[in-house]
Design brief:
With 258 residues, the protein is α/β, with parallel strands linked by helices. The chain has ten helices and nine strands. The longest helix has 24 residues, at 8-31.
């Protein structure tokens, strides 16, 4: 008797059944939100390491962009490349200077919600220097080092006492070593669009920030009608209050699926 397992009819039937079984899983995976994380000045993609595992544990896909920090256009291009290869809705998260980037590129059709973390949220035609001029100078800006090509870093004192004053000492040394230099002229670059005007937004305000005035953050959050989360931290709440930052991103992810 011919074995059923050698039957081409069986194989065809089994193949159809298998395809009908896996198709819903594939569709579900394609619809799963991706969290795209955009770091800021004096930082790199590893600045998100405290929250990435929590997001993955919730079943979200996560990509941390490595910004060149050489211009707003260059950072927008780096983020656009990540967005272009996603297959489902995206929650776009920006820290510090990264707020400029997500404001410009957040109009991308994949992006469904925005999260600003101790960040700038400019209006059309605004630069960082435009926004900051109405507020007292943050103490961290007294500790920048500018090289001969016009790129800016923070000294160890700047990182340890002003950028991340509530981070353990060993971590401060590591952050100083891996920080990305940013071109000083970036702070005069202006956004041409404002994604927050058409996308729901969340804003994590760092109340002890010494790099961006908390009052500026609050005013930006109010301007963009963001849901506000306030945390008593330095400029890096993603490291020191990762639970609260993660929760804001999860709420934005839920909104992105609606």
């Amino acid at each position: 008797m011919k074995s059923l397992f050698n039957s081409s009819a069986f194989l065809v039937a089994f193949g159809i059944a298998a395809l009908s079984f896996v198709a819903p899983a594939q569709a579900s995976d394609a619809d799963k939100p991706t969290v795209v994380l955009v770091h800021g000045a004096f930082d790199d993609g590893s600045g998100w390491n405290n929250i990435v595992p929590s997001l993955l544990a919730k079943g979200l896909k996560v990509v941390s962009v490595q910004n060149p920090l050489s211009s707003l256009a260059d950072d927008v291009a780096a983020t656009r490349r990540v967005l272009d290869v996603q297959t489902g809705p995206v929650v776009l998260v920006g820290h510090s200077w990264g707020g400029m980037v997500i404001t410009e590129i957040g109009v991308h059709p994949r992006v469904k919600s925005l999260v600003y973390v101790a960040a700038f949220a400019p209006s059309v035609g605004q630069s960082i220097n435009d926004m900051a001029k109405e507020y007292p100078k943050p103490s961290g800006l007294d500790h920048v080092v500018v090289d001969k090509e016009g790129f800016v870093t923070l000294s160890f004192e700047g990182i340890s006492k002003h950028f991340a004053q509530d981070v353990p000492a060993a971590k401060k040394r590591l952050m100083t070593a891996v920080q990305g230099p940013i071109r000083a002229t970036n702070f005069d670059e202006k956004v041409t669009v404002a994604a927050w005007s058409s996308k729901p937004s969340w804003f994590v305000v760092a109340d002890q920030d010494r790099m961006i005035q908390p009052a500026l953050q609050l005013d930006n959050a109010k301007k963009i009608s963001a849901k506000v989360v306030r945390v008593p931290t330095s400029h890096v709440p993603q490291l020191t209050r990762s639970k609260e930052v993660t929760q804001a991103i999860l709420e934005a992810a839920t909104a992105a699926q609606r």
